[in-house]
Amino acid sequence: MSSKVVKFGGSSLASAEQFQKVGEIIHADKDRKVVVPSAPGKRFDGDEKVTDMLYDCYAHVETDQDFTLRLQHVKERYDEIIEGLHLDLDLSKEFETIAENFKKNIGVEYAASRGEYLNGIVLAAYLGFDFVDAYDVIFFKQNGRLDEDKTNRVMREVLAKHETAVIPGFYGQREDKAVKTFSRGGSDITGSIVARAMKADVYENWTDVSGFLIADPRIVENPARIETITYTELRELAYMGASVLHEDAIFPVRKHGIPINIRNTNVPQDEGTWIVESTARKSKYTVTGIAGKKGFCSVNIAKDYMNAEVGFVRKVLQAFEDQSISIEHIPSGIDTMAVFVHEDEFIDKEQAVVSGIHQLAKPDMLEIEADLALIAVVGRGMKSQRGTAGRIFSALAHAHVNVRMIDQGSSELNIIIGVENRDFETAIKAIYDIFVTTQV
Ligand code: ASP
C-alpha cells in the first residue's frame, strides 16, 4: 500500500480556518497517513509567528523578567484555534509544565520547540490521528548531527504501531536528553526524515505557494511555475536564494528516490512542483529556473606567468581561508584570476585578506570590485541544447546589461553570470523573457 508523509507549514496552520483546509486535504486521500506540522504562523501581514513569540518569551526567562503574560499570549493563539474547531481539548496542563520548565531554565531550544509540539497535539485531536512526540523518534548525536540509524530504527518501530500519526516538526532529542531544534524552517527537514524512515512513496510539503516559480515574482511579473525540478537543479537555485523549502530538507530523501511535491494549502487543486532525483520529463523551457543574489565583491589578481607557477591559486585561496571567508566563484584567465565572495562576509576582513594575498602569493596587481550580483541560469536541458549561452548573452546585450563574469558549472547544468548590482533586475527579466515569454 502506498503512503505519503504530509508536512504543513506555519501559514497552513495559523488559524482554525486554515486547520479546516488541512483537514480536507488529509481526508481527501487515505494515503496521507503521517502528518508533520509547523507551529502556527502569521494569520495576516504584521502578525507574529508562534515560534517568534516563544523565542521572545524565553528571552524574558533568560533576563529574569516576568514571562507569564507572553506565554499567556501564546496560549491564546492555540485556544483560538481549539475554539474555532470546537475541539474538546484543554492545553492548560501543558502550559503549566512549560512554565515550570522555563523557571528551571530548561533552554531556548525546548522553548522554541513547544510551538510545533502543541500544534501537533491540536492537529492530532482535530484529525483523529495519534500524537507521536518527535522527542521520542528523532535523535541527535552530541555533536548536533542527526543520528540517522537510531532515528530510522526507532521511528519505524513506533510508526508500525500507529495507523495514522501526527509528528511535530522542528525538533528531536539530543544524547544528553535535552531538546534540540533544527535551524529556522526546520519542520521541512523533519518531514523529509519521516518520509525516509517510513520509505514513503511521496513527501508532500504543503505551504502557501503553488511550488517554485521560474523567477522571483518580485522581479518578473507573474512568472511561470516549475513543474518538475531535479534535486541537483534545486541545489543550484536554492544556493542563490530561492526559499520555499529548507535547503537541508532534500538530503534525507534524495538518495532514496522519494520525490517531494510542493503544494499550496490554499489552492489544493494546483499540481505544485515535483522535486525528483532524475526525470525523463523535459522541462517546458530550456531553463528550469533563474535565481540570483546581489552583494558580492570580486578580488581581481594578476601576475605574469601565473599559469606556470605551481601552487599560486592555493596560496591566494589560503588568504581567504585564514580569515574564514567562503568563496563563491573563481573565474580565471592565463595570468589573472578573480575570487568572488559575499560582500558582508568580506568587508570587515578585506585588508587582512589583501595583505595575506600579498605575503603568500606576491601578485603583480590586486584590485577589489564591489556591488556585483550573481545570477544562476539553471536547467537540465541546457547541455543538450545548442545556443543557450548565445541566447543569454544576446538578451543581456539587448537589455544594455554589461556582463562582468561568466562561469559555466562542470555539470553544464548552470551558467553563472556576474553583473553590476544595478543591472540585476534588468538582467533577470531579459533572461526570463528570452527563455519563457517569447516561447509561449
Ligand atoms: N516553527 C519553526 C520556524 O518558524 C520551524 C518551521 O516552521 O519549520 O522556524
Low-confidence stretches: none
Instruction: Compute the number of structural domains.
Output: 2
Helical content stands at 25-40%
Mean pLDDT: 94
Number of strands: 16
User: Strand sequence of the main sheet, in spatial order?
Assistant: 3-5-2-1-8-10-11-9
Using the coordinates above, name the CATH class of the largest domain.
Alpha Beta
Largest sheet, strands/sense/barrel: 8 strands, mixed
- What overall geometry do the principal axes of the alpha carbons give? globular
CATH topology of the largest domain: Carbamate kinase
User: What structural class do you assign from the helix and strand content?
Assistant: alpha/beta
β-strand amount: 15-25%
Oligomer: single chain
Continuous helix count: 14
Topology order in helix (H) and strand (E) letters: EHEHHHHEEHEEEHEEHHEEEHEHHEHEEH
CATH homologous superfamily identity of the largest domain: Acetylglutamate kinase-like
- Proper CATH architecture of the largest domain: 3-Layer(aba) Sandwich
Name every ligand kind in the structure.
Answer: aspartic acid
Radius of gyration, whole Å: 25 Å
Q: Could you characterize what this model shows?
A:
It is built from 14 helices and 16 strands. By secondary structure, the chain is of the alpha/beta class. β1, α1 and β2 form a beta-alpha-beta unit. The radius of gyration is 25 Å and the shape is globular. It binds aspartic acid. The site of aspartic acid has 13 residues, from α7.
